[in-house]
Design brief:
- InterPro entries: AstE_AspA_cat, N-alpha-Ac-DABA-like, N-alpha-Ac-DABA_deacetylase.
- Keywords: Hydrolase, Metal-binding, Zinc.
- Its cofactor is Zn(2+).
- This is Succinylglutamate desuccinylase/aspartoacylase family protein.
- With 323 residues, the chain is α+β, with helices and mostly antiparallel strands.
- The chain has 2 domains: 221 residues, Zn peptidases (Aminopeptidase); 72 residues, OB fold (Dihydrolipoamide Acetyltransferase, E2P).
- It contains 6 helices and 18 strands.
- A hairpin with a 6-residue loop joins strand 14 and strand 15.
């Protein structure tokens, strides 16, 4: 791990106390232009853990990229001990095209651990897993909600991992969601390799939200501080509220097609029967009120103004544990 004097990564050697930006080169564009994904490495003179901070597995999840950008721009990634490796945009192909997937149409987060001679997405996954991930003692991976679905700031972990539960509490997002590892996801690959991973979700695609960004940056600072890696020049704020652990949840789906408007804000605790939004038609003849099916927290809202019958419009907790 990072206690080594020399970190050998992507064909480069980075000694303790040194910084380096190493190219994660996988393939060229169809124009033959080379695509280099910068991997930013900061090493303290003092040995310690190696933290891998990633974002942009999906090319449209801009807010996650912004969180990692701020971590680098503010110098939070310069550790007091150990090593911090930042990969702000893993799916740079999707990021260039403002597309969630790779040019081959594949979702990178469904092809891990990848194949050396596989599809373009599979090759990127393979290189990440074989050449960067083995150095990590902990991963913090930043995501956002898909499409117009705005996620409350949350950390996702699996049940039964005491270490992850502790780190999730330290991170201090408003919610910790217990969710299963999806097959062929980055998180599942980390789990199989025995590398703890905190997956942060917040905001929505093609959007940068200051509250989400601040929650992500502050959470990363708290975790680094907890590990004794955060530079003493940074102040660490306490979370405004204690984490709510969501052990079960469900999507509320639209019963009708029409123009959709939420009347509650994200993070709101609602009671069963509360009106949380409405669906109308353009002609003023129809107005359907959406009611909360149970007591719980609204931690995802679909911000699309048009909805179709069956669309997921709210994510509500059904079982919580204030912790």
């Amino acid at each position: 791990m990072s206690n080594k004097e020399i970190l050998e990564i992507l064909g480069e050697e980075v000694p303790l106390g040194k910084s380096a930006t190493v190219s994660f080169n996988v393939a060229k564009l169809h124009t033959q232009n080379s695509i280099d994904v910068p991997v930013i490495i900061e090493r303290s003179k003092k040995p310690g853990p190696t933290i891998l901070i990633t974002a942009g597995i999906h090319g449209d999840e801009i807010n996650g990229v912004e969180i990692v950008r701020q971590i680098i721009a503010k110098g939070i990634n310069k550790p007091k001990k150990g090593t911090i490796i930042c990969v702000p945009v893993i799916n740079v192909f999707g990021f260039i095209n403002l597309n969630r997937e790779f040019p081959d149409g594949r979702d990178l987060n469904r092809v891990f651990p990848g194949i050396k001679g596989g599809s373009l997405a599979s090759r990127v996954a393979f290189k990440l897993v074989t050449e960067i991930l083995p150095h990590a003692d902990l991963v913090m991976d930043f995501h956002t909600g898909g499409a117009d679905r705005f996620n409350a700031a949350q950390v996702r972990i699996i049940k039964g991992e005491k270490n992850l539960k502790e780190l999730a509490k330290v991170f201090g997002a408003p919610f910790v969601l217990y969710s299963k590892n999806l097959n062929k996801s980055f998180r599942n690959t980390c789990y199989k390799l025995g590398i703890p991973i905190l997956l942060f979700e917040g905001g929505k695609s093609f959007n940068i939200d200051n509250t989400i960004t601040n929650t992500g940056v502050n959470g990363a600072k708290r975790v680094l501080h907890h590990l004794g890696m955060l530079s003493s020049k940074f102040k660490v704020s306490k979370p405004k509220k204690s984490c709510v652990f969501i052990s079960d949840s469900k999507w509320i789906r639209a019963n009708y097609s029409g123009m959709f408007k939420s009347t509650v804000t994200i993070n709101t605790k609602v009671q069963k029967g509360d009106i949380i939004g409405n669906i109308t038609d353009p002609y003023g003849s129809f107005n359907h009120f959406i009611k909360a099916p149970n007591d719980g927290y609204i931690f995802n809202i679909n911000e699309s103004p048009i909805t179709y019958q069956g669309d997921a419009i709210f994510h509500i907790s059904t079982q919580v544990k204030d912790d």
